[in-house]
């Protein structure tokens, strides 16, 4: 039996597009001699459909698409993921399910048992867990078909009390298929290979795994569909960050040349780079936009965003706006212009002096006798926000936010100022990683000016300001933030690792106090195991850790 | 046996405050002769603690508080809600639990079975469902103790396949106690009475129900703790929107004079009014702030917010900023000043002309030859945003947002302009309800100027602009929005109710397209069964319904 794995970039709720892509891949697979083509979890509607699932006509459109797809399954079988109604009165109204389709008809429905409800996942919000286990029989083979999380309850600290493969194995299947929607983070490819390999080993079965690819607002699916033999050895690894279609002969998986020792895996920073480029590209394409605008300060964050945007959208579609003030240093404009020249994007220089002076004048009476402080710093940042949003409104550019994760974490940014934007490109990338990204982008030639990389970071909102005036060294800050955010460690545990007590407490307090700002941050492209946004849900008026 | 129900306003993560309040109420209850005092669900840490639950030291602080509380339980027993560790390896790491404490020690742990994971609730994100059922025995009585949702699986379309009381009833309990954290919406008091009464009737047991009170950012808990006899008749209803403590003699519940036919319930609009006042008050108090600022336009939304803020914080703590432009009508400033005079709050008048002219000049080159459009309208709104944020930054005022739910729904508002604010007061109140609120506020004397109520709504961002230029009549708009948002109806179902097809499709498209704006909206005080924010989670790049 030949199995095709179809790794496709879906668009949530775009039934026309998704159905067409699925049908096209059915014919492509048939052309390659496949007996069965496997599509990802919730392929029909895209993942995650979120509260669209609560609308009955959305579910009806899923079912209609499935019937249309089924009509094309002649002389080839297919597996597609979609939400289906729970016909039993008690329990949630839906299942996260897969249809096994053959001879133009839906032959079997397989339902997901383990419903991830943590971090960015909300599946128990919508779905009833499965409690019935049946293999799919096809061409004399018994297939243990599971859906994503169903295979993840395998190692230490299992999150669920049941394990679907422990049920299915009782029926003596010949192979495993797992359909997934597994979002990228820069360690997740390794975790995934480990967990899936452990399943193949535990159940002594070959395993065919297909993932989605493409970005859905903040979540980036990296593809990398996989095949393992019954020893748990990785036999095939499909493309990352691209659509792909490959066909495998089931009985011959063990004869495929072993992938391990594999070629060196892509570095974390290359993975982050590729993920962000795809994240920008898909946000624009799926929203129907093509052009981006951003404020270019001469600093490293906006330089990196500009380079990534040019790569994703083409330099001709990127407008960089330079907005110097009286506190901007001489090198700011020069460094920004050097980047523009290196990269070939459009630019405008718009000084913000007239606006800041106007506000000084308007606020002269209420502010009489009061000293310059963060208020006036914020006014500058907000005047810049107005300028880039005006460019966005007038020309249909989409504003890219340029804040990094370190800033987001400690609240070093101005709401409605530099925190504006339709999408945050670097909001899940710590400052130290932004430097790595800059060096990665410059690997072949200088795109980001060296001076942008080597000069001390500064917001330039008051004379001779440096980030280091109010923040610790980013090398230390980022390590503490990583422990707190990704590793969920409290002050005590972080201090026990050898960090300075006063510093740790100060930073954790800053993180907690900045919650109200992050609530209004644009959606952030997620590249780590714990990004700000939908995957991290904190009270705003809470008192813990201040 | 005498049972005290302690209805308390907790503060999430403020262990010192919560513990002190609980201990105080233990002594108060003892003073009133109670044998047992009952506190709400997750009383120890406040509800909802959200991802604070993922930090081990947070859980340790809950346990430490419980031990401190236990030490005060001499000659009185108590029930407190708190998260407790799941000592079994498999499954989620925590239970949503209750401690039964007597003689200074934790005697029994009762765990929640049904974990609400819908709308604003995320309990399965954190908690393992209970699967063991034991009554609490105390003073010769068997108590069937359940936690909030545990009693809600009773009527049509049950959301769960199990029912905890069906297990507990097998042990022949003498009474039921339910501890809850049940947030307000303007119909929820009636639903709650119905569901709890149905439980008392079904199991033929008296039922003692205690709820939290107070606001936690967007969620407002209304209190209204309840006692039913074994016929399901409501025998006591505690205060709404206030702390309360009442003691009941278990055997005498049936002798209490029947509450039904009850005095007329508070109107929806009075409930909404009281909820919003409490929401504002608690946001400020729990964040450690006392003063609010808002932009006062002369229109009805900002007038109502100003009146509510003055009621919540005292007029002396409210700063209204009038920011006329050349498009402001003569009556705008007059109507706003009339309100200020009626209500006695502080005010400033700051014209925005200097700023808008500065931006016109700064953008003259890139915008050369291009007509005035929404760009320039947004610049005005954003200049006002800068002014009120500057007042906030300079004086420590917290900015209240004044957008209503109708505007939020269709995207009729400017991001980083009138959509600024730390908290949205009316974001869950439709425009037609805002008018009702204004009339309610004016019931005893004219606070909101009549002209503000009777004039046609306008954003006044271009000459002679009216809301009705771009939006349908609010009476129709709000009814369509209600069907779509609260009732989750798609276009087809709404059209089938008799609404115009073109209009319905246009409005639903507007709602869908505005998702990116709502993502960056401030937290919205929730008063309906479906508010924008944490309870409504939509994809941004999704295509459904456009």
From TrEMBL, chains A, B:
| Gene Ontology MF terms in the entry | NAD+ synthase (glutamine-hydrolyzing) activity
Which EC number applies? 6.3.5.1
Q: Tell me, what's a Pfam family for it?
A: NAD_synthase
Q: What catalytic activity does the UniProt entry give for this protein? A: deamido-NAD(+) + L-glutamine + ATP + H2O = L-glutamate + AMP + diphosphate + NAD(+) + H(+)
Name this polypeptide is given: Glutamine-dependent NAD(+) synthetase
User: Which residues are noted in the entry as L-glutamine-binding?
Assistant: 118, 182
- Where does this protein come from, organism-wise? Pedobacter montanisoli
HAMAP family in alphabetical order: NadE_glutamine_dep (MF_02090)
Protein residues bound to deamido-NAD(+): 378, 407, 517
């Amino acid at each position: 039996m030949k199995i095709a794995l179809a790794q496709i970039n879906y668009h949530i709720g775009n039934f026309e597009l998704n159905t067409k892509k699925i049908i096209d891949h059915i014919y492509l697979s048939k052309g390659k001699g496949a007996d069965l083509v496997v599509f990802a979890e919730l392929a029909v509607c895209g993942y995650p459909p979120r509260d669209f699932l609560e609308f009955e006509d959305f579910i009806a459109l899923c079912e209609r698409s499935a019937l249309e797809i089924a009509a094309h399954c002649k002389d080839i079988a297919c597996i597609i993921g979609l939400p289906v109604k729970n016909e039993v009165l008690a329990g949630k109204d839906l299942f996260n399910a897969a249809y096994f389709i053959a001879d133009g008809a839906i032959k079997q429905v397989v339902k997901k048992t383990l419903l991830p409800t943590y971090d960015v996942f909300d599946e128990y919000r919508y779905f009833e867990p499965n409690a019935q286990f049946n293999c799919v029989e096809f061409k004399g083979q018994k297939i243990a078909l599971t859906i994503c999380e169903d295979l993840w309850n395998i190692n230490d600290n299992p999150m669920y009390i049941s394990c679907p493969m422990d049920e299915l194995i009782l029926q003596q299947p010949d192979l495993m298929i797992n359909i997934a929607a597994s979002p990228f983070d820069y360690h997740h490819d390794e975790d995934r290979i480990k967990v899936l390999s452990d399943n193949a080993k535990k159940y002594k079965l070959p395993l065919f795994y297909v993932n989605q690819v493409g970005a859905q607002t903040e979540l980036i699916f990296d593809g990398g569909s996989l095949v393992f033999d019954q020893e748990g050895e990785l036999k095939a690894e499909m493309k990352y960050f691209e659509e792909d279609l490959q066909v495998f002969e089931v009985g011959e998986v063990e004869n495929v040349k072993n992938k391990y020792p594999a070629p060196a895996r892509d570095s974390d920073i290359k993975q982050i780079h590729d993920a962000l480029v795809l994240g920008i590209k898909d946000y624009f394409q799926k929203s129907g936009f093509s052009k981006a605008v951003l404020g270019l300060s001469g600093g490293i964050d906006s330089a990196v965003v500009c380079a990534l945007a040019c790569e994703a959208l083409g330099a001709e579609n990127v407008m960089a706006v330079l907005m110097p003030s009286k506190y901007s240093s001489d090198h700011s404009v020069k460094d920004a212009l050097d980047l523009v020249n290196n990269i070939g994007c459009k630019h405008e220089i718009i000084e913000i002096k007239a606006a800041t002076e106007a506000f000084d004048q308007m606020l002269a009476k209420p502010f009489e006798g009061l000293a310059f402080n963060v208020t006036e710093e914020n006014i500058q940042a907000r005047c810049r926000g107005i300028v880039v949003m005006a460019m966005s409104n007038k020309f249909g550019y989409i504003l890219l936010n340029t804040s990094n994760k370190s800033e987001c974490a400690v609240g070093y940014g101005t709401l409605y100022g530099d925190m504006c934007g339709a999408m945050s490109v670097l909001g899940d990338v710590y400052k130290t990683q932004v430097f790595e990204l800059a060096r990665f982008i410059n690997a072949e030639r200088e795109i980001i000016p060296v001076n942008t990389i080597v000069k001390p970071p500064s917001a330039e909102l008051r004379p001779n300001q440096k980030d280091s005036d109010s923040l610790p060294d980013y090398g230390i800050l980022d390590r503490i933030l990583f422990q707190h955010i990704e590793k969920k460690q409290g002050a005590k545990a972080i201090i026990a690792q050898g960090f300075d007590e006063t510093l740790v407490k100060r930073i954790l307090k800053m993180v907690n106090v900045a919650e109200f700002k992050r609530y209004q941050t644009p959606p952030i492209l997620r590249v780590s195991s714990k990004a700000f946004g939908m995957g991290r849900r904190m009270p705003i008026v809470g008192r813990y850790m201040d």
